Structures are given as structure tokens and as C-alpha cells.
Amino acid sequence: MKNDILDDFSPLSNSAKQHLKKHVNKGERIIWANRPKQGIIFRASDGCLIPFSLAWGGFAIFWESMVIIMDAPIFMALFGIPFVLIGLYLIIGRFFHDMYIRKKIIYGLTEKRIVIKRGDNLRFVDLSALTDIQVLEKKDGSGSILFNSKFDQKSNRNSSSNLNFAPLSMGLGFDAIPNVKYVYHQIEELRKL
User: Fold this and answer.
1) Contact 127, 145 (CB under 8 A)
2) Is there a domain that residue 3 lies in?
3) What would the pLDDT profile of 68-108 be if each residue is shown by its tens digit?
4) What is the pLDDT of residues 142-186, one digit of tens each?
5) Which residues contact residue 174 at a Cβ distance below 8 angstroms, ignoring those fewer than 6 apart?
6) 20 and 63 in one domain?
């Protein structure tokens, strides 16, 4: 192993390494492990989604309140409830849903594989199977790494165009990780070995 590949010694990464140790092969060393950023995250797609969600939710709430105020038939009140619920999810619920998903995720990198643990589900991808890596970095150095592998290209399940608007909890990658360039360089160094 090259000496320029260093472990990340933050308490968060050490806890993540401990969670992943039992899932890797005997003798396989975890080079890096961490969890995605916790809390509410605003993404680039929110520039469009926030105004849309406010328009949808605002209209749905207005509709429902007018139906109730005007003492319209019960059918009209019931008809508007799903639209209000969808609006509330789009306005605020999706942020908490994303936060809940990220709370269950642990990312790892060994000498040969990428490890993604989401709750009880594990996904391993050999570094040799990666065909494309895309790095999305924010000003603070955090960001995301998107992966395409030979398997994903054959099944056409994971194109980077599908991932740009969605949180990576649905795709193959490391989402909202600190020091994204550091992790990317570790992956590139390991792919050269």
C-alpha cells in the first residue's frame, strides 16, 4: 500500500469503520469510512423544487380551506386531502425523509472495494468495475462522488443524469461527505494499484 493514502481519524469515521469491519472480508483493510453529513441539506435541485412545492402546497391548502369554509360536500373536502399531504411532503417532509435515510448510511473504502451500507442492506463494488467517477464539490470542501460501474451500465439503472436531481441515497455513490477531494484521490490511488 502506498504511504500517501492516509486514514481519516475523526471520531465519526472511526465509528463508521467499526460498523463496517464485520462486513468486510478477513484481511481486508478499511482505508476510509464515514457517514454522510447529517441534518437538513439543501441541494441544487431545491432551486426548482422549493418554488414548485410552495405553489403546489399553497394551492392545495387554499383549496382545502375554501372547501371547508364554504361548507362544500364532504367529497370535495376528501378530494383535497391527498393534495394537501403531497404539498406538505414536498414543502417540508422530503427534507426530513432525506435526513432519515442519510442517518442509516455508512460509506467505506477498502483496498479493492467500495462499501455502502444502508440500514441492513450492503452493496460492494470492486474498484476495478468502476467505469466513471464524477465529483461534485461544494465551497466548504464537502460534496458527493457518483460512481458508474460495469454492472450499472449493463442494467442502465444508474446513469449520472438520473442522480443529479435526486439524493444519492437512491444511486451508487458517496453523498454529502466531508473532504470529498481527499476521498476521490484515495479512490484514484487505489485504482492504480
Assistant:
1) no
2) no
3) 999 899 999 999 999 999 999 999 999 999 999 999 999 99
4) 999 998 866 554 444 444 443 333 444 446 899 999 999 999 999
5) 36, 107, 114, 116, 144, 145, 168, 180, 183
6) no
Question: Are residue 70 and residue 129 in the same domain, yes or no?
Answer: no
Same domain? 23 vs 65 = no
| Cell numbers placing 161 | 443524469
Domain of 58, in residue numbers: 46-100
pTM of the model: 0.75
Q: Nearest Cα to 35, choosing from 99, 96, 93?
A: 99
Residue 110: partners with Cβ closer than 8 Å, 6 or more residues away: 24, 28, 29, 30, 31
Report d(CA 110, CA 133) in Å as an integer: 17
In a domain, 83, yes or no: yes
Domain shared by 73 and 119, yes or no: no
| Residues 72 and 156 both lie in one domain | no
Tell me the percentage of the chain whose pLDDT exceeds 90: 56
Give the model's pLDDT for residue 62.
96
Q: Let me know whether 154 and 180 are in one domain.
A: yes
